[in-house]
Amino acid sequence: MRSLQVKNLSKVYPNGNQALNNINFTVNPGEAVILLGHNGSGKSTLFRSMINFETPTTGEVLIGGQSTTSLSRRQLRPIRQKVGMVFQNFNLVHNLSVFQNVLFGALGTSKTIQTFNWIAPKELRFKAMEALDRVGLSEFAKRRADELSGGQQQRVAIARMLMQDPELVLADEPIASLDPKAGREVMDLLWDIVHERGLTVVSILHQMDIAKEYGERILALKDGELVIDQDIHTLNERALNDLYHQPTTKQRAGA
Hints:
By secondary structure, the protein is α/β, with parallel strands linked by helices. It is built from nine helices and ten strands. It has helices at residues 43-50, 73-80, 98-103, 122-134, 150-162, 180-197, 208-214, 237-245, 249-252; strands at residues 4-12, 18-27, 32-37, 58-63, 66-67, 83-87, 168-172, 200-204, 217-222, 225-231.
């Protein structure tokens, strides 16, 4: 299982905007962490930095004890293979089948995979169908991805992630595009899989009630600073409410 460590992470953009200010935290193997914060708090910048889509100004990110901040794309590949990502907008190829979309999850581990037809290696086809069965969508394998509901598409994205055999899962607002019922179903599924496999997970959410229900630990950003890092059982409710109900510096300045 993979740990995630963020050390002294700061990000200042060329226009002078400081998106992150000296962020420090460690997510231990098997831990389920929810990241909260108002719009503009720095959540997205932090998320992109964790997967090296964003280069920090200072500090570093370590996955499984390996610093990813200064690595080349080639050097990052074996680390990213074990990091499963779930996005708000699903990131599916809409005109391809559900089955083909799931097979894309194996691209990082197989050089011979052919995802545009049914002649991928037998073991990968079997694994893709197993993943679809796990998310309850095996009967939709031949359907186009854009024919499915939003909740079903997110399930396909989770099945695609399972093809990686991930050890760390990073989920960026995985239920933001879904209605409440579908959102809870997706969270139940994702958290069941995380617990089944003993995975480490960090998920960005907006909904405090969902965060408190699913997270073992809450991290929260405000104005680019880490203002809450607490176990769910010792969580300061007042601090959590202030996170959303008190205006941020940017809001007070009219940003």
